[in-house]
UniProtKB/TrEMBL annotation:
<feature type="transmembrane region" description="Helical">
    <location>
        <begin position="69"/>
        <end position="87"/>
    </location>
</feature>
<feature type="transmembrane region" description="Helical">
    <location>
        <begin position="187"/>
        <end position="213"/>
    </location>
</feature>
<feature type="transmembrane region" description="Helical">
    <location>
        <begin position="442"/>
        <end position="462"/>
    </location>
</feature>
<dbReference type="GO" id="GO:0009103">
    <property type="term" value="P:lipopolysaccharide biosynthetic process"/>
</dbReference>
<keyword id="KW-0812">Transmembrane</keyword>
<protein>
    <submittedName>
        <fullName>Glycosyltransferase family 39 protein</fullName>
        <ecNumber>2.4.-.-</ecNumber>
    </submittedName>
</protein>
<dbReference type="InterPro" id="IPR050297">
    <property type="entry name" value="LipidA_mod_glycosyltrf_83"/>
</dbReference>
<feature type="transmembrane region" description="Helical">
    <location>
        <begin position="145"/>
        <end position="166"/>
    </location>
</feature>
<feature type="transmembrane region" description="Helical">
    <location>
        <begin position="389"/>
        <end position="408"/>
    </location>
</feature>
<keyword id="KW-1003">Cell membrane</keyword>
<feature type="transmembrane region" description="Helical">
    <location>
        <begin position="233"/>
        <end position="254"/>
    </location>
</feature>
<feature type="transmembrane region" description="Helical">
    <location>
        <begin position="41"/>
        <end position="62"/>
    </location>
</feature>
<keyword id="KW-0472">Membrane</keyword>
<keyword id="KW-1133">Transmembrane helix</keyword>
<feature type="transmembrane region" description="Helical">
    <location>
        <begin position="420"/>
        <end position="436"/>
    </location>
</feature>
<dbReference type="GO" id="GO:0005886">
    <property type="term" value="C:plasma membrane"/>
</dbReference>
<keyword id="KW-0808">Transferase</keyword>
């Protein structure tokens, strides 16, 4: 029975992840070839040269014996690239990011009038990042360069946490690959100048994951829950991670030889969950008592993301028509009722719904990443030729990651049980975006999990090649 259960659980995970990564790899290659970024002959040459260079770079980095020298070289190069990017592409705040930055400036002046704006009335959860920016502005001044430098530091932090997570089980070489790929992932570089909440939220959440996996002490599990709550205050992803943690503990219990530690597993995850909700409660109470927010940091327009996500005409993206329709009703029961009616209508036609989900997945996971568009903003002018080259590089890098992640799923190490948490995060994040609004920049959060799997895949190739060389 235990053998059957192990095979069944592992089989479900494998089928889902192989389907996801094979889908992404195939259609990403297709979109790169048909995207007219470069001529086919030039694209072929660029792809060959690019992959040779990236492989050589990864191999050379594994040859550096000193960890200190490795981190100095890679981190220094990554920071220089980003500083160069900021000089060449001085991104000004735009769209939602401009609104949040302006609100942060007002907050430092004691002006909380922005709380009455419809944006913050609908989505009070955005206030977490507003007040983070306000704190930075209060200390260092209004120069956006400070916040952009913090983005660089947070990106380095994300890379280091990814390195630590993968090194819980794998050798130094795999951790170095994770660190390097995360620091030179093009979309992260393109987003350096954007005052987005994604860098901070991603750092806090992956730090929480590292602590959860690293230590079994209950106080560490509680700390992980607190960090998840803080990450959720920057970007509302916490509930997805809570579900992933619960499913992760259940998976470990199902795969355990004796299944006698269910209470211990429940105790671990319960501690994190309680700390998560307690932290949210305390912060929400403090913000409301001090009148820094009228409402908890929550979504007061809960059907909106689903209304957009189920819009067949926009393939799950933003719709001005939907906005106009929903804005006819005030926030609360009437708008929620209208949203539910629209959702109910849009899920009636099941074949159409399945087709929408397929097309959404192609758009979300395999189309051009919008990071370059956000990085350009309205004040930056680059030639179409340069943009095409930058988009082509982003595609090639992304394909390298997902193809190696696919290989890792095929060659999974049975002993790496912690990897099931990454698997659950990827599967859950993919499935959630079948239903809600999509933007390709939303890949940002899950890329570290992709890269950690990709590093495992690349390590498998590297070790087999090295072993073959030794036997020749």
């Amino acid at each position: 029975m235990q053998k059957f259960m192990n095979g069944f659980v592992k089989g479900v995970y494998t089928v889902l992840l192989v389907s996801i990564f094979a889908f992404i790899t195939y259609y990403s290659i297709s979109n790169l070839v048909t995207g007219n970024y470069l001529s086919n002959s030039k694209l072929m040459i660029v792809a060959i040269v690019f992959y040779i260079l990236i492989i050589l770079a990864l191999v050379l980095l594994t040859k550096i014996t000193s960890k200190k020298i490795f981190f100095m070289i890679v981190t220094g190069m990554a920071i220089l690239v980003r500083i160069g990017w900021l000089i060449k592409v001085p991104t000004a705040p735009s769209s939602d990011f401009q609104m949040m930055h302006h609100a942060a400036i007002l907050a430092t002046q004691g002006d909380l009038s922005f709380l009455k704006e419809s944006y913050f009335q609908s989505w009070p959860y955005q206030l977490g990042f507003v007040y983070f920016q306000a704190l930075v502005i209060k200390i260092f001044g209004q120069n956006v360069l400070i916040l952009q430098i913090i983005n660089i530091l947070l990106n380095c932090g994300i890379a280091f946490v990814g390195y630590k997570i993968i090194n819980l089980h794998f050798k130094e070489i795999t951790g170095r690959i994770v660190y390097t790929l995360l620091l030179f992932y093009p979309a992260y570089i393109y987003m350096t100048g954007v005052l987005t909440n994604q860098f901070l939220a991603t750092f806090l959440i992956y730090l929480a994951i590292y602590l959860y996996l690293k230590h079994d002490q209950l106080w560490v599990k509680a700390t992980a829950g607190v960090l998840l709550a803080l990450g959720n205050m920057m970007r509302p992803l916490g509930i997805l991670l809570i579900i992933a943690l619960v499913c992760f503990e259940i998976t470990k219990w199902l795969l355990a030889p004796d299944r006698k530690n269910i209470l211990k597993s429940l105790g671990r995850v319960t501690t994190s969950v309680l700390a998560y909700f307690l932290m949210l409660f305390l912060v929400n109470s403090a913000l409301q008592v001090t009148h820094l927010s009228e409402y908890p940091l929550e979504n007061r327009n809960p059907t909106w993301k689903f209304v957009l996500g189920l819009n067949d005409e926009t393939v799950g993206s933003y719709s001005a028509t939907d906005l106009s329709l929903m804005n006819r009703y005030p926030l609360g029961a009437k708008r929620d009722k209208m949203g539910k009616e629209i959702i109910k209508e849009r899920i009636q036609d099941k074949p159409k719904l399945v087709n929408l989900m397929f097309n959404k997945s192609k758009k979300m996971w395999t189309a051009r990443d919008d990071a370059l568009m956000w990085g350009m903003a309205d004040n930056v002018k680059l030639s179409l030729k340069i943009k095409n080259w930058l988009n082509a590089v982003q595609f090639l890098f992304y394909i390298f990651i997902v193809a190696n992640a696919l290989l890792a799923v095929f060659k999974w190490r049975e002993t790496w049980t912690d990897g099931y948490l990454l698997k659950l995060m990827i599967i859950g994040y993919f499935m959630v975006h079948l239903l809600i609004e999509i933007q390709s920049r939303y890949r940002f959060f899950i890329v570290p999990a992709f890269i950690m799997l990709a590093a495992v895949g690349w390590t498998i190739v590297y070790e087999k090649f090295s072993l073959r060389q030794k036997t020749l």
